[in-house]
């Protein structure tokens, strides 16, 4: 083709001028735009991506030159639609920013084709269909394919497009077909089911081995699953490494070198990403045999280099580090012991690796107590996380999904205006047991703005309280205006933590001769960071220069609080728990989250994995670290009641578990129940500005696995938290059965609870 084109150009140069190359113009008209959402076009044949600049009113245009007619994936935020673009046809695309999938509309020369692609009339097999018996499943698949082809023919679209679409339709319609043997067993619990020859013959008829089809996303998704399924035909006893089974099948049966290369790279790279190099010699040999693409080779070699350092039998590198007493210790000094050094993380405070400013008092808590490295908040933003801590219930189950705002905003986010005071409350359990109970600091579980009917903090089991603007009864000393803070507050912003600590010490002095339960909830380190010397420089409030002294002041006041306990002789028999409600706002290139993926408003680790330190000298030996136990805020209600030897409220049934032995350092037990989160179900939620940090709106942690997925089952991401706490390697494609199982569990949980925030009485 290139040679013929060249000859034509040479002949035209003899006196005929060139015609101007035509460009396809795309115009976007978005109602209710989400100004944080990127609009990206991904070309299937070239892999090229183009971002469309959308202005504040929702309008944007882009001209695209020099491309062949092809399918293009349109992504707006997390919403996706398939387009078909032609270099000589313009297209006008309009939709509502909050519901692109059901409001998208097209005008212009390319409207007919794209309207056909996006009307919802094209049907495909779904996960639910895989529970059908084999004959019914095959019949449904064939019926859908016939109907899709009939619809395509009736659309009377250009022949060039129709010919391409017939190929795409096959892999789109039959996408779930290869997984029927596995998913049927999972859905029906019929472990005796074995796929018939009829099934495998049908599957074989669907498989076309043609490297030209690798430009189709539907083909690239269908083919690996089909090959995995075909490699299982006749296998009665699966090998320990099924990836090796898949790759051997490819080696024997697939003659198209490019297709074989694509599949071998996909399977082997995914396997080593999740499992490492141990026992992978045969896979690496097969990889080297089939993969010749320079980019694939470079990426694979980089992966192997990283894993080589962790290969079994490889000596640990020499290093030294300061222990908790400041003494320099080397690995060589630690003889006859197995040392497992985990990445400390959570980058604000020193004992977790923070280097912004010294935090000696918080670090001393860790030195004198027990530090946890796998503790989770119940949400990535303040209100729901505090509700989870208070009630021992996942926040979606109490109808609060994001930070509590004014009534209109709460309604848009499908949540209640305040926490129901008839729900369980940890403080109430302690109050019932005869404890003096107090809450000092931020509340943010109802009240403030235009929500004037929120229950008193006393209704949740507190004898005394003092709180901020975001509460039903704010303290006048820190709320001179109807806002979080202002210059007219009698207690200035930079004195607020000191004020909270003063009030906490006073509470303890008055109740030191009786048992007490106290919430000390400062509202630093929330922005704005206002150290006294920066009070007038409003432009510098969100800089490291402002952040560091505020963090230092926080540490100083925590030190004052601990010293007061010491001076009153209460330290020995007082449990101190230091933690945070959610991850930091995006700042300082992820240093604050210790480079974990995600921030506040994200279900990636940076949004929900928190520092957690427990000091209880009477029961907990100093200087302990727990790297393996997975805890969550919802566990604290039953756990602390157990430690104190008191009963939970009557008929209490929460999501948390009693991990008293873990909290006291007597056990590092593995978690027995799954953790689940919901955040970001619609466009009205706050999201991280960086698309990389924007997570699907559901998450589940089950053992070492963490799955993120949307409520409709889309964008499933699976991570091995023992190997990949930074969530860099999505291995969902390697574990389809596990993905299906966890997706089903968390999506059903979401479906059962998602409307609890719509109850308008609260």
Write up what this structure looks like.
With 762 residues, this protein is of the alpha+beta class. It has three domains: 2-110, Immunoglobulin-like (Sandwich); 127-308, no CATH class; 350-758, Alkaline Phosphatase, subunit A, CATH 3.40.720. Strands 11, 15, 16, 17 and 18 form a five-stranded mixed sheet that branches. Strand 5 and strand 6 (79-85) form a beta hairpin. The protein is globular. The termini are far apart.
Quick summary:
It is built from 22 helices and 22 strands. It is an alpha+beta fold.
Per CATH, which architecture of the largest domain?
A: 3-Layer(aba) Sandwich
Q: Which parts are unreliable, with pLDDT below 50 for 5 consecutive residues or more?
A: 1-21, 312-325, 329-345
CATH-assigned homologous superfamily of the largest domain: Alkaline Phosphatase, subunit A
Q: What is the CATH topology classification name of the largest domain? A: Alkaline Phosphatase, subunit A
What is the helix fraction of residues, given as a range? Answer: 25-40%
Cα separation of the termini:
68 Å
Indicate the CATH class of the largest domain. Answer: Alpha Beta
* Individual helix count: 22
Computed Rg: 30 Å
Q: What best-fitting shape do the alpha-carbon axes yield? A: globular
Largest sheet: 5 strands, mixed
Give me the secondary-structure category: alpha+beta
Overall pLDDT: 85
